[in-house]
Specification:
alpha/beta; single chain; six-stranded mixed sheet; Rossmann fold; 11 strands; 17% strand; binds iron/sulfur cluster; five-stranded parallel sheet; globular; 370 residues
């Protein structure tokens, strides 16, 4: 039976799957996949867009640093309109804050080399996919003797956030928020039944899996008894992965359906480069709060490159009616936010999920042609 026919003929219990990759979110909406699924299969977006999960305190700190005449802030364009507690980087730039937009972190190195009288601070935001590039940036700066480059890091890793989401979508008692992702929970016998969850499986993040390998999701699959399917980014690949999630109900296992790019072990060279320059830390996620062990920071021996990243653990300010937190947890769909498409549009974003092209609110808004 063809994949679409198989999905459309599904008449079992209601299923809700979460995609935790911003590119998947964008492709799901671009291909109109939600409308192709029967009412009993629902897709929700998770915290898979690095810009969306960046806390307002991080934006505030960039603005503060950019007001120092010795500093130059360097960032990707997506970050410019993310709301801080009182304004975005774009608004701060209009008020004299020094902010430069680049397309690659390596551009920051060129800028710093060409202007040794100023300190260039790169807004280093991202998941496992981007962190190896920041490691390469620091390595290049070291090798070229560039001393006026800094990173303000807001680097995150995905498994602890998925663990947090699973735990907080359980109907029964969830593991304590401060418990760390990893083997200790399994060996301690903490294992909850997937049946009780609001989420019945995950489209594992494709880009992240290229670096980490698919095996990294196995402890989570076993712990929660849920299937994880690594999918490619074509519409038909996403539909095939959803069909696999339906078929794998009740099985806590990982299936790699993107073998052309993803292996079990991932990219060892990139992993080793990250380990050389970065170490685990707690991290604040917009809407989710602080998740233990979910971040990466520069190791002590490279702290000369750190612009002061460690204290960014708050998430305050912004529009109090914005429901990014619930959207990022898969609790509501973007259109259920009272501001969606009215006060909040890509031209007037009230929350980070409406800013990035990979944000769920932006993707939803675009697919509905509002
Ligand atoms: S529609 Fe706008 S205000 Fe509502 S959750 Fe999304 S980003 Fe926040």
């Amino acid at each position: 039976m063809k994949i679409l026919e198989y999905l459309q003929s599904y008449d079992g219990k209601p299923l809700r799957f979460m995609e935790v990759c911003g590119t998947h979110t964008a492709e799901i909406h671009r291909n109109g996949i939600p409308a192709l699924l029967p009412p009993s299969i629902e897709l929700v977006s998770g915290p898979g867009c690095p810009v969306c999960v960046t806390v307002s305190a991080y934006i505030d700190r960039l603005i503060e640093l950019g007001r120092d005449p010795e500093n130059r802030i360097v960032t990707f364009g997506d970050m410019l309109r993310v709301p801080g507690s009182s304004m975005s980087l774009s608004e701060a730039r209009a008020k004299g804050c020094s902010v430069r937009m680049v397309y690659s972190p390596m551009d920051a190195l060129k800028l710093a080399k060409a202007d040794p009288d100023h300190r260039y601070i790169f807004a280093a935001v991202g998941f496992e996919t981007t962190t190896p590039v920041y490691a390469l940036l620091v390595q290049e700066a070291l090798e070229q003797g560039v001393t006026n480059l800094r990173l303000l890091t807001s680097l995150k890793v995905m498994p602890p956030a998925i663990d947090w989401i699973c735990a907080h979508n359980a109907e029964g008692p969830a593991p304590a928020r401060e418990e760390r992702f990893g083997e200790d929970q399994e060996s301690a016998g903490i294992r909850l039944s997937g049946e009780s969850f609001g989420i019945h499986g995950f489209l594992a993040p494709g880009h992240v899996s290229v670096i980490t390998g698919s095996r990294i999701f196995e402890p989570l699959a076993r712990k929660y008894g849920l299937p994880f399917v690594v999918a490619g980014f074509e519409g038909k690949e996403i539909l095939a992965a959803i069909a696999a999630l339906v078929k794998l109900q009740g099985q806590g296992r990982v299936l790699n359906m993107y073998p052309s790019a993803v292996t079990e072990e991932g990219n060892r060279e990139a992993q080793e480069r990250v380990t050389r320059f970065f170490e685990p830390c707690d991290a604040a996620w917009r809407g989710l709060g602080v998740i233990a062990g979910s971040g990466r920071k520069l190791r002590k021996e490279y702290e000369a490159f750190d612009a002061g990243s460690v204290a960014l653990m708050e998430d305050a300010g912004g529009n109090p009616a914005c429901r990014c937190a619930q959207v990022l947890m898969g609790r509501i769909r973007p259109r259920e936010c009272p501001l969606f498409g009215k006060v909040c549009t890509p031209q007037t974003p009230q929350g980070a999920c409406m800013v990035s092209t990979e944000g769920s609110c932006f993707s939803c808004w675009q697919s509905e042609g509002l």
